[in-house]
Amino acid sequence: MRALRYQRASQDKKEQGKSVHDQGKLNVKEINAHGWTDAGSFTDNDRSASRHATKEREKFELLIEAIRKGKGDVLVIWEMSRKERDLAVYVQIRDMCHEVGLFFWLVGGVLFDLRDKNDRMMLGFQAVQAEWMADSIRDNVLRGIVGAAEAGRPHGTVTYGYRRIYHQRTKALERQEPDIEIRQTTAEDGTVTEYTHAGVVREIFEKVSGGTPLITIEQSLNASGIPSPRGARWLRGIIRKIAMNPAYIGKRVFRGEVVGDGIWPALVDEEVFWASVRLLEDPSRTTTRAGRAVHLLSYIVLCGVCGGPISSSNVSRHGWSGRVYSCLKKRCAAVKAEFLDEYVQRVVVAWLARPEVFEDLSSGVGDEQVSHARAEAERLRADLEDYKKLAESGEVKAIDFVRISKGLERQIAEHDARAAEAGIPPVLRGRIGPQAVTAWAELGDEVGVKREIIRTVADIKLLPARHKGDRSPFGAHRLEWTWKFGPESEDSTAG
Ligand SMILES: [Zn+2]
């Protein structure tokens, strides 16, 4: 008797079953016990036989071929579900075996004769049962994922910046929290940097929301030697993905959609998150396609007559050629682009530089984030005081105190900064008050960030010239200007 044996392992870790190695050993033992010849062994590792499986099972196909060619007299498998769960395939193989004269199946040590109607019934029953098992497992796995998503529990890989805490004994997930473990890395130039995963995420958001280009963030992370989430170098795509992941404001995402609140805390404020998303989605920040230059005010300034957008175009007439902004839909109003660009920037920068604006935005009265950040800074200050006392009394070694206090002071500074800036829209941080003029100049041709700043602070509408051939210089009379916040937001232009 020539025996063909087949072993298969499922990729489903939750499924109980013997490994392919164990199945192989058991099958060989059976073959030897019966005094058969081992005519061929076929093993599929990490394959699922269920009809929902997506991978090809190559060795299984070879087994079928061997059966078809009449290379065996008995088929040896450890259990039905290990061979083939799909009922239709089972029937096909059974009939094929019968046809070629392979009448014996040894399943889990029990010999079946395909010519015997009772044996056929028992095998058929096992196949039905195996299919039912496969379907149930699949249902349970799916229900588990959907259930976890609906309950706001995390599943899958841990989002970078967080860590999961499991119950020591039951291993059940207790919570997901910011990963604030202090890590150390050495850059190529020997500089040592201390960082936390949560800190890296916050820094990415602060920079992106402040308009720092992704390439600059990529370069600075790689220069510091901090490994990417996958442990390799940072790429713009990774940073972009992080800066647009709603998990960082505590939202549960399932199959690309926000399905509700997660059970974990946010790592960044919603304001910073949405500012990042807005900046990354601004078409002016994506690659400039040929023939479609990005202009400072197109689609930001609106037409004062019809309310439609103003777009930029090149014109050439009456011996003059250059760029103009004009009402896109009906041409109600138009202006030389350099006039509008220059005027709007001058007014915006002057406004950003005003001490009242800085004061007004910095006060952030009643802001929950502000009070939280202040409270956190206070708590850390108290901790620091405690450590000082312990260090003085010798309960904490001086060297440890230096290390601890450094860390605490840095955290306090962070919280203080957050408290001071929480009332300021992310894109304006570090760009208002006394820093306004320099900061604007430093932006250079970062048109996307300038656009975001202008869009954040003002609603601007372009009015038509009073009459044809109006020679009065371009100025406030050609614009309807509303500040979105700040002192005297009803106040019109300052220029
Ligand atoms: Zn118009």
TrEMBL record:
The keyword Transmembrane helix does not apply. Residues 159-286 form the Recombinase domain. Residues 370-397 form a coiled coil. SUPFAM superfamilies: Resolvase-like (SSF53041). Residues 1-24 are annotated as: Disordered. SMART domains: Resolvase (SM00857). Residues 10-24 have a biased composition (Basic and acidic residues). Keywords: Coiled coil. This is Recombinase family protein. It comes from Phytohabitans kaempferiae. The lineage of its organism: Bacteria, Bacillati, Actinomycetota, Actinomycetes, Micromonosporales.
